[in-house]
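Notebook, bench 3.
Goal today: get a predicted structure for Sigma-54-dependent Fis family transcriptional regulator from Butyricimonas faecalis so we can plan the truncation constructs. The sequence was checked against the plasmid map this morning, with no discrepancies at the termini. Length recorded as 410 residues. Pasting the sequence as submitted so the record is complete.
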Amino acid sequence: MEDIRTIKQRFEIIGNDIKLNRAIEKAVQVAPTDFTVLITGESGVGKEIFPRIIHSFSTRKHAQYIAVNCGGIPEGTIDSELFGHEKGSFTGALADRKGYFEVSDGGTIFLDEVGELPLSTQAKLLRVLEAGEFIRVGSSKVQKTNVRVIAATNVDLPTAVKNGKFREDLYYRINTIPISIPALRDRKEDISLLFRKFAADFAEKYRMPPIRLTEDAVQILENYRWPGNVRELKNITEQISILEQERTVDALRLKEYLPAQNNTLPALTSNPESDHSFATEREILYKILFDMKKDMNDLKHLVYDIMQKEHTIKSEPEPSTSIVLRNLYETPQSEFLGQAPQKTISVEKNNHIEDTEAVVEESLSLEEKEKEMIVKALEKNHGKRKLAAQDLGISERTLYRKLKEYDIEI
């Protein structure tokens, strides 16, 4: 029996994750038997490799191996594809045709996306698994087949059973030996290995130097959730390999190739027993406030100009729009900052604005927090500006400007 490293080389599997290795070992162990195997995992994790591993280590390895994408066959023709049909059984059936179960007799059939099969076809598949029998479309003759069935799905079959979309008896029949393939985000150490492999392959294909990532870009790559898993990583690597003239890619450049949904701020979670967790949540909130500060000040100045114009032009009672804007202008910022109320702008009945000190006080308070955040980020990353800018969610150019503005020395 080959060792796991040799198997990986043979089937071009990249990665050293424990869960991935366990899935490979399980596939090799079950291969000599005739048990039905159900392979589960998200779309793009590489489920199609494991049926080939099982078939190649089975006693059927010299017989036929057929892979069928059940989700890619129209519902009206799926029975004909799987079980065959008789001449004249439906319009277009000009001759007898063997189905996949008949062609692969003695071998292995891989049913990918088995969760997409219609309920009527599921009943026929159950009969094949239990009795080794099937009937061609348009025929009444029962035929025998000796086929090893391996199924795969990215659908939650227990939920599909509960919703009446998948037969419960078929689920238990195909789930004799389950093999779960881990998602790419659960194999963080394998992500950079896969990227280098794909980059080398595309460099050879397109006859150009391979793409290399800086350290901060590798961190971005490993922290991305990869909803499309290995397939998505391969596609993005190909895009970068073709489009980038510079063959070394940093974090800012890499982010342009990753979907924007990954760059949203994480949800805040409460953990009163952890001071570190609380500090992290507070820092995230400050980041949001820093982004809002400029817009808030611009809005206040705009409202101030509108109110001044209304006072100059009209001496009659204020319209409802002016009242709404005035209420907005007078709202204490401490309500969302969680701080003690600061001095707010007061407006007399004669529409004369007495004090604008609150705008200045709030601005100073936020600037102090911003300065504090920058210092913390630099200390955390040992003075490395690139990493500090990444933690703060700003560009390096903005960080340089802030360092000069606040006279912060590294």
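Residues 202 and 242 are 8 Å apart (CA to CA). The radius of gyration is 32 Å.
Flagging this for group meeting.
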